[in-house]
């Protein structure tokens, strides 16, 4: 399936494709388009829109798109994923930046990534390692399931 969002990803738009590919749709094709073109491009490409105004999956209430996807796809039984969601939330929601000690670091990586990589798909590929590593770290932080 094609999934589509706004170009120049930093936090939610790197975290969500990682989540989608790892837990929801391993064959996902991620498309990045200019912000104002997401919904039209989604219709034209028969793609699922995310993290854009009016998208199928986007911020809802106080939750970032990453959290919305976890809820929508029933992934909330994974304590490490929930721990990672708190970090992504802190990095993505400006007023909640201090809600998790790892949030500012993830935000710094996201913002800095935009400065060192001009190609959104290469940025996503590099970001996948960051999220794999964070998820592995989160698995160490939560108690093992009984």
Structure report:
It is a single chain. The chain has 146 residues and is mainly alpha-helical. It has one domain (2-141). The longest helix is centred in the last third of the chain and has 22 residues, at 120-141. β1, α1 and β2 form a beta-alpha-beta unit. It has helices spanning 12-24, 38-45, 65-72, 79-92, 103-116, 120-141, and strands at 2-6, 29-33, 48-49. The model has no long low-confidence stretch (mean pLDDT 96). α1 (12-24) runs parallel beside α3 and α4 (79-92) crosses α5. The chain contains six helices and three strands, in the order βαβαβαααα. Helix content is 54%, strand content 8%. This is Chromate resistance protein. Residues 3-138 form the ChrB C-terminal domain.
Please summarize what this structure is.
The chain has 146 residues and is mainly alpha-helical. The protein has helices spanning 12-24, 38-45, 65-72, 79-92, 103-116, 120-141, and strands at 2-6, 29-33, 48-49.
Main sheet? 3 strands, parallel
Percent of sequence in beta strands: 5-15%
Q: How many structural domains are formed by the residues? A: 1
Shape: globular
Mean pLDDT: 96
Rg, rounded, reads: 14 Å
Structural class of the helix and strand makeup?
A: mainly alpha
Q: What oligomeric assembly is this protein in? A: single chain
Could you give the count of β-strands? 3
Identify the strand order in the major beta sheet: 2-1-3
Element pattern in H and E? EHEHEHHHH
Figure out the total of helices: 6
Spatial gap, N to C terminus: 35 Å
Helix content percent band: 40-55%
Poorly predicted regions: none
